[in-house]
Amino acid sequence: MGQSNNSPNIDLNQQNIGKSLFKKFKGGDLKSTYLGKISDTSGKVRFYVVTEFMRFRADIVYHGQSKLIFYNSSKKVNAQYYFDMPEELPFKLESNTLYFHDGNEKLSLLTLQIGEQLPKHIFNSY
Description:
126 residues, mainly beta, globular, five-stranded antiparallel beta sheet, three-stranded antiparallel beta sheet
């Protein structure tokens, strides 16, 4: 289920940016979306960025878990941030900036610029 082996569930190649991979497993499913890479000023990859939403069955209801995952240049998990709902996850990465829908405003966006260091926490307005 998900990140059990520390490596991505989706191929982190340029042609897969914006694409999602859907996997079913016993008792649930997993949707992984590759948003892209974060590079330093010289163009060297610092992080690959993936969002995941996993549903798993518990008795008669499903529970979900949303994650924003940063992989290092060796494609191993560097950091994971957890969110309650999939709509809280960023939907785009462009020029080292993550784009989120603002839960308080219908048409507003929130942005988060990622530099050399990852933030300790990432919050959304939901």
